[in-house]
Fold:
Amino acid sequence: MAYLSMGEAHRRITDYLSRFCDAVSSQDAATLSALLAISSNFASLQAPADALNVFQDSNQLVNQVERYAQFAEILSPLLRCLQSYRLGRYSDAYVAFEKAANAFLQEFRNWETAWAMEAVYILALEIRLLAEKADRELSSSGKNTEKLQGAGSFLMKIFGALAGKGPKRVGALYVACQLFKVYFKLGTVHLCRSVIRSIETARLFDLDEFPVKDKVTYMYYTGRLEVYNENFTVADQKLTYALMHCSPNKEANKRMILKYLIPVKLSIGILPKQWLLEKYNLMEYNEVVKALKTGDLRLLRQALREHEDRFLRSGVYLVLEKLELQVYQRLMKKIYVLQKQKDPSKAHQLKIETAVKALNWLGMDMDMDEAECIMAILIFKNLTKGYISHKNKVVVLSKQDPFPKLNGKPVSS
Amino acid sequence: MSDSGGMTSKGAEPIAVVDSRSTEIQAVDVAQTHGSLYSSSQPAVQSWSSSTGEQSVPNSSYYYDPQSQVSMSGDAQGMSFTSHASTSSNQVGVNSTQPYSGYAPYSSSTVPYNYNSVGFQNYYYSNHPLGNDSTTQQVEGDQNPGAAYQPLSAFPNSGSYVAPTSYLGTYYNAGDNQTGTGYENNSYNYQTGLWNDANYHNYPQHLYSSYTTSATTVAQSSTTASTNSLYYQQQYNKWPYCYNQAMPAVNGIAGTDNSHAAPSLQSAGYSAVGVGAGYPYSSNQPPPPGTTSWREDSKPPGVSSFQEAATPYNVNKTWEVVPPAMQTPPVNQQSYFNNLLKPTPLPNENQDNQPKVIYSQAPHIQHSSSNHVPEIFQTPQQTAPTTEVRQFSKVQIPTNPRIAPNVGVSLLKTQKESSGTNAPTRPAYVSVSMPKPSDKSSAEDHGKTKGTFPPSLCAYVDRSFARCKDDSQRSANENILKQVIAKATADGTLFTKEWDIEPLFTLPVEQSDQQSGSPWPITKRSPSRRRSRWEPVADENLNDKLTSVDDNATKNTSLGQVEAAEKVAVKNSGSKSVNGSVGYKFLPSQQQSILPKFSQRAMKKPRFSHTLSATENVDHSSDSDKEQNLTKYYASAIALADSPEEKKRRENRVKRFEKGHGNQTDLKISRSKIAAGSGAYTSRTSGLLKPTSYENGQSKAVEDIDWDSLTVKGTCQEIEKRYLRLTSAPEPSTVRPEEILEKALHMVQTSQKSYLYRCDQLKSIRQDLTVQRIQNTLTVKVYETHARLALEAGDLPEYNQCQSQLKRLYAEGIKGCYMEFSAYNLLSIILHSNNKRELLSSMARLSADAKSDKAVKHALSVHSAVSSGNYILFFRLYKEAPNLNTFFMNIYMEKMRFEAMKCMCKSYRPVVPVSYITRALGFSKLTQGEEIEDASIDGYEECEEWLRAHGAVITSSNAELQLDTKASASTLYMPEVEDAVAHGDANLAVDNFLTRTL
Structure:
């Protein structure tokens, strides 16, 4: 770092402090949030951060001037955070930032209007980003990574300050989304439930009054939760909403939404176009889609095996696994179609033996009993219309639409 | 001892510089007041004289100076003889030793004087409060002033008294010291220990060498401190208890509000005060152990229990021993007390800096003591010595209860009754009621007591005393009466009981002989004491009682006055003490004011008169007589010093002390782990001791507990052991070492007995492993064995316990059947908890190795079978399940079958042969390869039964049973599980539980 004279350092710090105080007094949220954006806007904060390394006694500076001293609770830790961040000590920076954020939240509670909402957003964002950085730092040194957890509880605090009636509730959704991010990252997804409940059932919120971007994020996360619950209809709605309202420029966000939306759509019988997968680089689904189209069970299993890790991590593995029945259906349909081409009069009698042959040809080791069982399940799940004659080892297919399409409805369980 | 004398001399020099003011004053005062006394006593007490002599001033006045000096210097040992205890307490650690040494010699020499000393003690007490306060305040800042002051209290009592002060001081200073060393040593040490660790070492030596006195001192110092003559005798017995008490007291301080503990200590010292002070606090908070002890005393207030009260006791003793002496001493006492009373306000001032607790407590104590004094004083004059003894006790009784209530009330009401009460009596602090009883005969006293106690009870007390032939009996009587009344109080029958028809208790056989002529039965006392300590004692009852009494009596103003005075003082002090070094500055002032009073100088009130109305009142008392009285007192005491009785008593004390000594060492060893070599057990106990002591002392964090030292090394050689959930620390003798546990595991594995027996055995093995903190392959084996057994028995809760432990153990890298159990884990999630996220994460965690494992593969296959509803696959997998995977599948089997049947009913038309179902749904025991035509026999009936049980419609054609799918589709149902229990755990079913046999 370039040499900095004491005077210059003092000037920079004072500048920072006065800008903060000015922003608060003039209710300039944009400036304020810029000053709070430690990690996401560090470039503009580098000057005071450098100065802090030169000018050690910044606390005194804060306390000396009454204008600054009234925000000493915020400013002192904030300066410490800046300094620590500049030095790459993210864990310290996080601790200091949480302190500052806490004090800021206290102030924010006392402000009648929601003018500082933007700054609170920044707080919520920064606390998470800093916590993630701090945890990375901690884990690299073999220490307990608990900062993100702490950030989660702090975010919950912010959420509590926002949720409720009044002008500040518009910010609740943003904080809720930050919370979701933390919880998903921590794997404590179950904690989302309370947040969702307070948003959706408290009736304090009309989703329409929230900013669209927050709604998209919110829908994305709640949709993901529904995927976990294999509640495909709702998941489809939420994720579709997210995709529809997602900013067209945010390709990455769209991809993330599609990553979950595609399996959901698949499981309700809607297949994506090839170009979509290509455009958003979701080719791992390509083979799955292909298997569904062709009824190639082997391909499906192969695809699942191939991308098992990825699917397991994203949590769609089980969803994709369930596509197996649709692949069977496709396979049977193919047999039926072939039979129909061959002999339309007997097309409705699908011998189980034939099915076994087809399956064996696909490399599936199945006997009559199992094939019969699968046919029974297909009928049971409304994927096939007809009945099995055990005596004759024949599936008697309905003459009308023997293999109904799902058409957006999930497979009945 | 001689060394100590030398030490003192050394100390003197530095002292002089520091304390010049205070010492001077003291010197003068002392010389005047005590001088005569001391001089007379000196010859009798060699140690004393020697110490003083060395200091170069045989006279009392000089004597005092040295003390102060010593205290100043901080040489603990040197001081010892001169009763520097008090000073020592003021000063940090070093001094602490002094009190003992000083005290010890003094007592030994003075033993004969006991009662004299008692008188002084009282005196001291009164004085001490001042000293204490100052000391506490000064603790670090001004040692000198405190020291200077204390010299006055140089007497044995002072030592004890000082202890309390030191205690307070410690409290303020830091909790750490208390727990650390204090416990090991006697209570006294404990207190002193706070100051310096070094003290301990010095102290013990002194104690032992000093002999009897030391014991007493210890006892006294340890909260009880009352320093009564009674105490000496009792303390032999109690001593350990006292020690104990001290500890609790300390604990209380550390743990909860200091106010509590501190008062208890002081109260103990002042007995009477204790009652008063203790109560108010106790009501709010849990009473510290220390307080209870004195409370009991207070309970029987109606009776004689109050002997323990410092002043009253002294009086009693004096009477008994030397009737003639009594008369004079009382006067002295009064004067002293008055003086003492004055000092009390001072402490308050100083205390501004310190917590409020001190304020209220310290003043209380002092006041109470003062109250007693007047009583004593008056009584002796009036009646014959023998009767007086009784009277004293009785008189005290009434006063005490009142005091107690007063305190309580006063605390609550605070200044309600301020100066108004003071007016009636000349000596401000003397309770109004007191003078009357003293004037009257014993009978009258009782009558007076009636105010607080039912007349019948008084009569009862009279009766009981009437049959006493001598002092020892009387004391015994007192004790028993005390107990009786305490009991009645606790029962709430005090006022309802018909005391008139209550048969008198039988007096114990005279123990006076055993007690080396001491009038009070030692043995009797100690038990009662002990009881008091641990008895619940229903504080609330007492409180209620007291308050009620108070209301009835209405006369108990004295304490209220005191309170008011305190308050005033506090206020004044608050206003006055602007300086940061309040303690420091005030001390000198205190001394000045106090000392003058002592010496009856005009200086008396200058400071405090305006602050305290009470003080003024006190001043009125006969200060002029003080000196004379004191001298006489001492003279008589000296005369007694060499009496055979006293010698016996001394011997007794020595013995007692030795006992205590043993105790001490034990404790020390255990605590300090010196005895580490003595084996696992001792180390364990020490480990246990530590945490408890921490708890008591200052609540150390759990993580500070030395778990290593708590870990048990088992010695049990029994292979078989029933499981019993531990409710206390494990006993090594019942814990099996690892090699035995291995045998036990083998025994369980090969045992043919029921699961319950084996489960029980395994749990006990697990417990033994846990308490010994054994975590190795054996541990894994045990948990694996148990998990398997639990699975086989369908005991899922137990399995889950084992599984979670195994997860942890595997994670620590301990080898075991990892694959098998990760398969179980998967199956458990798939078939039992059905948590998708958990399954995902478990699957994601599987390594490539694991995925190729047979068991894990099987589990994954089961997963796909279940998720797709492939019943054929499921039951095939069921048949070829490795390890105990079958047992998991058992859990799900019923559900799978039902689902399958539903599926069949929907998809099959028109019928499905039962034989096929038998095969498909796993009723057949045959594996796939063995399919035969004849298979229908195998499991056929079972399948039919099952189908019927689930509402299937079965038809028969050609002698073959068939499932009518269409008809069945609407009639299928899941039957209630017969042995289902509301809480879902069949293992907890009552019938099952009751029929459990191992």
Observations:
- The longest strand of chain A covers residues 386-389.
- The mean pLDDT of chain A is 86.
